[in-house]
Specification:
Blueprint: H1 3-13, H2 18-30, E1 36-39, E2 42-47, E3 54-56, E4 59-63, H3 67-87, H4 91-103, H5 105-114, H6 122-135
Length: 142
Amino acid sequence: MNIFKRVLVIVLQCTWGLGATLIGLLFFIKYRKRPHRLYRGAIETVWDNPWGGLSMGLFIFTPDAEAEYQSKVRVHEYGHCMQSILLGPLMLVVGILSAAWGSHPYFINLRKEKNIRYTSFFIEAWASKWGEAATKEPAIWE
């Protein structure tokens, strides 16, 4: 990704995606002692949180896990970063839906009982597809 595109990602996340970016900044501050790096214009933090991954505007959080799994989650979360650029303030609604699908006991049990992939939910499939399209790397599809 060239420097222009990276700067554009940052500018869009700090303007149109400001709401999600500010929430992401709070998570970044909380996990400030964890490893960080720039990834295609986003700020990636490797955290030790059992949630797996999280994307909030300019910030993506990936699990402290085996390298291949972490990489696939990174691509998926970058897809959410791209969604944030498109949706701006509406991304907060997407974030609430995504969080409910990922962590509410009803949906956790439903996925287990019916053997439904996490990315079967349209928001999550969209994130993996866009992440793969933007990075040309494989995303998580579990």
